[in-house]
Amino acid sequence: MAEPRIALVHHWLTSPGGAEKVLYELHQMYPQAPIYTTSYLPEKFPEFADAEIRTTFLNRIPWLRRIHQLFPVFLGTPFKLINMDEYDMVISSCAAEAKYVRTKAHTLHICYCHTPVRYYWTDYEWRLNNLPFGFFNPLARLVFPLFIGPLRKIDYQAAQEVDTFVANSKHIQSRIKTFYDRESTVIYPPIVTKKLLALDRKTSDYYVIIGRQVASKRLDVAVDAFNELGLTLKVAGAGEEIARQKPRARANIEFLGRVSDEERDSLLAGAKGFIFPPEEDFGIVPLEAMAAGCPVIAYGSGGAPEYVIDGQTGVLFDDQTPEALIGALKRFEGMTWDTEVIRDKAKEFDEGVFHQRMGAYVDGAWAAFEGKRRNI
Question: Any long-range contacts for 44-48 (C-beta under 8 Å, 24+ apart)?
Fold first, then answer.
């Protein structure tokens, strides 16, 4: 039986994050598959240098490449215009509108769903009050309420056209059912553990936050908590939230900006604990911290409770407030941690495990799809 012709689809490639790590591993699994995306900034993704990236018309408008999220009303259109007739299988990596890609009856569409579109469903009200578009915020606040009803309807309908869903966590599996009324299979996203597992853990007297510093990451909660306690916190990563929080931070909080992979590894290997205050669909960086042997102090909602085992691999706090984080830190300070127990949990999310599970799922879905086609 001939191998299926596969295409990968991703919402945009403009800023590295967890979803882009999933896409990279899919590219490693299916290196011959072209990657379709709305916008692409190659300087941000050297790991995709050998990939065939096919962009939409949005990529030909330079300024729009960097603020394309301002236009969700239009983001479905580029995907709908992509001709997928030459492919037997499409795998969309979707936290936005990538699943809108249209396929015909001879093409299997598997959607790896990082989350139902947050700005349509779970985060609409919050995002409306915490827009990241600066000068364009007033325009966005006028436009979004006019379109949210129709956008939700379009998004729901697009989800009905997907043949089969994969969820990145049990948390997202529940949301897919709630918002799209679709069943899904959980396959956890990959983390790169080999190098992290080999790091020599030598704990220093600081905590660390690493990642894109945008409003939804709730850096404000950490800043308030560490201002109160006076414990040392190192913040690595860039984003508009740095400008808001840095002036509020006391001398015990250090802002490092963007760091290299080597610097990140060193920070994780030496940190007393990794601070994770957002509600994330899953959260890859906390697992990278665990692979380095570093326990995690996390908000106990979203995907974090699926790997942060309270008292074993870290500490969970119930409310997304400075007071709750302060309580968790005080409890954390009085505990001891077994590096190997923490690392063993992280191994469950190794990229090799992802390749095995995702590969088996894709093969099974394709066999079932082929069987149905033959019986038509």
Answer: 44/13, 44/14, 44/15, 44/16, 45/13, 45/16, 45/20, 48/13, 48/24
At 105 the pLDDT is 93
- Cα–Cα distance for residue pair 341/371, rounded to 1 Å: 44
**Lowest mean pLDDT across 88-97, 134-143, 199-208, 297-306:** 134-143
pLDDT tens-digit map of 84-135: 999 999 999 999 899 999 999 999 999 999 999 888 888 777 777 776 667 7
pLDDT at 61: 67
Encode the chain in three state secondary structure.
CCCCCEEEEECCECCCCHHHHHHHHHHHHCCCCCEEECCECHHHCHHHCCCCEEECHHHHCHHHHHHHHHCHHHHHHHHHCCCCCCCCEEEEEECCCHHHCCCCCCCEEEEEECCCCCCCCCCHHHHHHCCCCHHHHHHHHHHHHHHHHHHHHHHHHHHHHCCEEEECCHHHHHHHHHHHCCCEEECCCCECCHHHHCCCCCCCCCEEEECCCCHHHCHHHHHHHHHHHCCCEEEECCCHHHHHHHHHCCCCEEEEECCCHHHHHHHHHHCCEEEECCCCCCCHHHHHHHHCCCCEEEECCCCHHHCCCECCCEEEECCCCHHHHHHHHHHHHCCCCCHHHHHHHHHCCEHHHHHHHHHHHHHHHHHHHHHHHHHC
Q: Report how far residue 372's alpha carbon sits from residue 374's, in angstroms, rounded to the nearest whole number.
A: 5
Residue 341 pLDDT > 70 = yes
pTM: 0.84
Q: Is the pLDDT of residue 42 over 60?
A: yes
What digits encode the pLDDT tens for the residues 246-258?
999 999 999 999 9
CATH topology of domain 194-347: Rossmann fold (3.40.50)
> Which residues in the chain are classed under CATH 3.40.50.2000?
6-190+351-375, 194-347
Q: What is the CATH code of the structural domain delimited by 6-190+351-375?
A: 3.40.50.2000
Q: Indicate if the pLDDT at residue 73 is higher than 60.
A: no
Cα 92 off chain centre by = 14
